[in-house]
């Protein structure tokens, strides 16, 4: 296709996006892209209380078509193409145009109304910004993408709404301009407009998220709130909480020799406070001390994406620190003998409220992280965490001592006044605190010599650099030597073979490992309460496994745990009987021989029909890995998975059931059903079984289909996988086992009847949500061999604790409300 043809295709597909982009660009070029429209044109086109009161009724619309400078223009053009383009893709041309026009009109009109109402009552912020004239493209962009969220799938609907509201709130907190208020109101107007345009998208309550998506959202929240204060470095606003740092870009630092003389305790002027703020942040060191704690949060956000529990507690610690510092240095948290910095009289209630909010935001984030900590199962070795804490504490103490020592050596000549030891001790903690929190603190002294200045400015910088750099190896795993070694040993044992079809699940997060020191077997397990539940049987060496089972049981007993072998092959039943243990069937594994795969015969009619239906629809099968997928397909997989999770009334299950995160392992294979337009209609994942480093079998794990996809897409995928495995010479293909579902009939046993009833009730309760019994019936279409899988336990008295441990293993996020619903049989 020619360039002109491509241009026509883009215009035809996204006419509103193209027109709006060109209008913004043309108006910027006409009025001056470097500076935006100047007065009086800017006042005539911009909006605010003044223009609207003067009768400029058109300004809520014209103000969103202009920018203030070249940087804003570039950002606006990029975001217009991305956000309006996405909105037009989701909800079509006319809805996008309606949203782009209606949401800023509502947001700006309501925002100005609030301003006028507040300024009439003498409210400080509204009065101080009433004269400002606003030109802001982003108000319309925020409202438009928020409207479009109603037309997105469960995954992107939640992401768009959370991130859009969060960004709007962060700008309001850290910039505080009228445009930030208008934008936030427009965003909520877009939320309401989306519901009006698509009423079926309205859902009550919070749509459930997978573990992966919760990690993505929390990491995004931490990252956005960490980047938010940087707005104070870039904005020209003086209404944000970080305004003193912005002074660096507009003012020169005053002379140190006269500064303190002019700023006495009872002669503090506005200019004096300005000069003190500038002096505190003059130089690279103080700026880095303010920025590096935010970098710690960005590093923690990276770890949150990986499910790191250490990253979670790191983010909690930094947010709590910021909250406490805000509360103390802004006078919200008075201490004994300390005079509050902000008067709590009615005259200053607005300042107190704003400063309280600056403390509550990081505190709220910390609380949310703690509440949702179970979604972060990846734990480093305790030694790695202890090492990190030791490094940070040692660095803090060493740098504090160094600062005091240097200050004492130069106490007579290095500062604006002679010092004693108590002066240095009282000041040392403030060397590590971001200067944002110190802008209302009186300055007792300042350095005058180059060396004293360097130490004064940079001990905090070095400390926060250590905190950042020491965290990186812990988050990446190299800081946990034992954990890394165990992971390598488990992977090597799995590749040696000797295990069962679910042995590969031992590599999943949440497992601990026991390695037999005698014959090289390994067992994956997790301790819940005082019950140690295995993930399958021993692996890493060929049978017999008798001695390893016995030694693992002794290991558990030595630690005060009740050992439970869960989902192991029924061939172990004789061994457990000899040990005096009880056993019961908990699932049935469906196994297919790919070398004898065929779909001929009457029993295969349903499978053949599904294959033919998929082929007629132009659907093809792709055997691939997660790492090989393009970004567009990764997004589709996330969307499909989130829609599946959102439909459930219970949390995403774990233990022997993998989710989206488990697809990322390079050893796992995916079989995708892709239509002619490249859209994924369904996906299955396959876990390898090794023998001497060679894959001899594949086990089905992850199964998802796009809502509205053709019937039979899963049958098509499994049939295509069987053909692939037949051609590759694979020995067996396991369709895995549906948890808590089987057809085996066991003789009645008084010891087992209680557990049978417990697991049977759990299975029945979960059936409407997860359909394990339906899944068992589905697998019978492929005429597999059914292999019972058993659970073995030593003490029937422990059955109640075992039942609770199994529920917590599969549903660690189960809330009290959900547990009550489950108990009532409503799942």
Please characterize this protein's 3D structure:
It is found in: Cell membrane. There is one protein chain. With 827 residues, this protein is an alpha+beta fold. An eleven-stranded mixed β-sheet has the order 1-2-3-4-11-5-10-9-8-7-6, sandwiched between helices. It is flat and about 90 Å long.
Short summary of the structure?
The protein is α+β, with helices and mostly antiparallel strands and 827 residues long. Among the domains are: 1-208, Rhomboid-like (Rhomboid-like fold, Up-down Bundle), CATH 1.20.1540; 379-476, Helix Hairpins, CATH 1.10.287; 591-737, Aminopeptidase.
Features:
827 residues; alpha+beta; Aminopeptidase; 11 strands; 10% strand; transmembrane helix; transmembrane
Head-to-tail CA distance between termini: 54 Å
- CATH top level assignment of the domain at 1-208: Mainly Alpha
Count of alpha/pi helices: 32
- What's the arrangement of strands in the largest beta sheet? 1-2-3-4-11-5-10-9-8-7-6
User: Helical proportion?
Assistant: 40-55%
Low-confidence stretches: 202-206, 240-270, 332-348
CATH topology of the domain at 1-208: Rhomboid-like fold
In the CATH classification, which architecture of the domain at 1-208 applies?
Answer: Up-down Bundle
What characteristic shape results from the CA principal axes?
flat
Keywords: Cell membrane, Membrane, Transmembrane, Transmembrane helix
Membrane topology: Multi-pass membrane protein
Main location: membrane
GO molecular function, one term: aminoacyltransferase activity
